[in-house]
Specification:
It is built from 22 helices and 8 strands. It is α+β, with helices and mostly antiparallel strands. Strand 2 and strand 3 form a beta hairpin.
Length: 476
Amino acid sequence: MALELRQQLKLSQQLVMTPQLQQAIKLLQLSRLELMETVQQELLENPFLEEASEALTPADATEKPELRSETAEAYDKELASNADWEDYLGDFSSTTRQVASRETEIPEEGTSFEARLSSRPSLDGHLSWQLTLSNITERQHTIGEIIIGNIGSNGYLHASLQEMAEMAGPDVETAEVEEMLRRIQRFDPVGVAARTPQECLLVQIEVLGYDRDPVLVEIVRDHLEDLEKRRYKPLCRKFRINMDDLREYLELIQTLDPMPGASFGSSEPQYVAPDVFVHKYDGEFVIILNEEGLPSLQLSDIVDTLPVVTGSDKDYFQEKMRSASWLIKSLHQRQRTLYKVMESIVKYQRGFFEEGVTALKPLILKDIADDIGMHESTVSRITTSKYVATPHGIFELKFFFNSAIGMDDGSSVGSESVKALIKQLIGDENPKRPLSDERIGEILKEKLQLNIARRTVAKYRTAMDIPSSSKRKSAF
């Protein structure tokens, strides 16, 4: 077969994530404290960026009315030719430096007492450290970060594979997320990121090498409720084992950890500064962004004193000026997006702001995304680690998104509202005769016409860390 050379023209499309676009996306999902650290780090590293004495718009921050030097005018001319938002997507960025963790130094004499204290490791920090040390591709690392970001304090996963695939990018398949999830579930603590207690325990059984026993695997997978309710004799008959054998299985299961994230939790109160305030004034709700501690940025006057430079120095100066302009615009865009999302949440959840948790309505990311004309992933990022101060307390923005439960009249109510009702019923129950999950479902059906199954009541009760009726009764 003869070899030959051919030329072929091929047209294709692909999404390119430039460093600047990556920076803008990361700014969306940063918490308030993380954002302040990022801005302060950039102020230290970028000589063309400074803190303004008063709040400026992005246009004000990147333009100065006074006379400029020849060098400054040359730089302005270069920037003006690429003044559009999209045109800032170039090969110049300080993203990696902004998001990189600061190097720790050995405390020297005179260091404050607080600086010598070590903080208690968090679950997401412990998992992120293991993820960084893993031999994986950059794409897998991105997926892993999203999975870790959706793990609750108890160690369980709070998002579906499809939702995480959408967060990772338009070309990410659920199979890739599932593969990375399986890897993270075998991190320390083993069983983290599980979706159910059964999955959590089965992962631990596999890692410990006990999965060769089919009886143990089936007991954990299908009969945890039987063990909890002490239905031992039916299990012995089914698996044809005696009570001593079943006791050994039970003792082995008790050595496993159904709450792998609990050891990283803290009973100490966590103080948060709200990112947004919502006040009621003259019958309407007013939204105020909390910008205390966030410096107003502008381009520095140092550019006016610079001589005319060429070569690598000129490239460096242009890179830093563009990076500074991009950061100013990205911060403005972040605050604008946060305001629009909060405004839409207030519109959809007005009943909550008027009456409280029991009036919370069903809401999904797509509702807000369609309302403000943005992508669901953008809404997901801007609501991550953001808090709002309301007339009823401080809540994370993700709290307002909840699934729907049907009612007899065809309408629906939010799952968070149902949780609040279940908590209220349990709080008002007779300690000597606690309400069973089935009875709670019947009460909700009778009084509120809610179609809710016993297992759903049990799921919500478990999510609120409320023990079962038998355990509540034994506590008195």
